[in-house]
Amino acid sequence: MHISEGVLNTPTVVVTTIAAVGLIAYSAKGVKSEEIPKIALMTGVFFTGSLIHIPIGPASIHLLLSGIIGMILGRRTPISISLALILQLFLFQFGGLTSFGANVLNTSLPAMLMFWLVRPLISEKKSSQFICGVLAGSIAVVGTVLGVGISLVESNTQFGIGVFSTIHMLIYGHIPLMIIEGIFTGFVVQFIVSVRPQILAVLQTDKGEVKPLTINNNI
């Protein structure tokens, strides 16, 4: 989700911008040419998923798809998400320059965690693949909502006051999104494993069985 321009106070803008620049630099370090098509594809996925959004005060609700992006890209996730956010900012005025750092952090960090925490759990069982997808999709949304909430409250405590405050409305509005993204990501993970299992470090054996591989977290 996007935090709008002019919402965050100066200290929050400075801290999140510096942190985001550092995260993007870490993400871009050592990128190989063969990784670029995958990064570009995931950039398109995030860009498209975020086009339909519902404004809620200083932020908005829309599809993230960050769970599957994080599981596929790992440490390269911030590159993809930052590029998509830049395109959305200049083409559609989603988000803002001062909130760019916060938007990158709030979306990228939960997605990256799915690569290290959930992706290694994928096994040859269809149920395992679906459950891992559900966890990645839903937890990534929860992580982003928490990040946005912290960013807003740090800038203005008024965003968190009252039953119908901005923070509470964001939480209420993202409960169905968490469920939808979880189920959708579950089916996507199953589809990827059945069609191109190597994308998630799962390969077909000679007997047609799927076998999970040790995941290289540096990729």
From TrEMBL:
Membrane topology: Multi-pass membrane protein
Keywords: Cell membrane, Membrane, Transmembrane, Transmembrane helix, Transport
Membrane-spanning ranges: 7-27, 39-65, 77-94, 100-118, 130-150, 170-193
Keyword Transport attributed: yes
Superkingdom of the source species: Bacteria
One of the record's GO cellular component terms: plasma membrane
Keyword Transmembrane: yes
Name of one Pfam family that matches: CbiM
Identification of the protein by name: Cobalt uptake substrate-specific transmembrane region
Naturally occurring in which organism (per UniProt): Romboutsia hominis
Lineage, top ranks: Bacteria, Bacillati, Bacillota, Clostridia, Peptostreptococcales
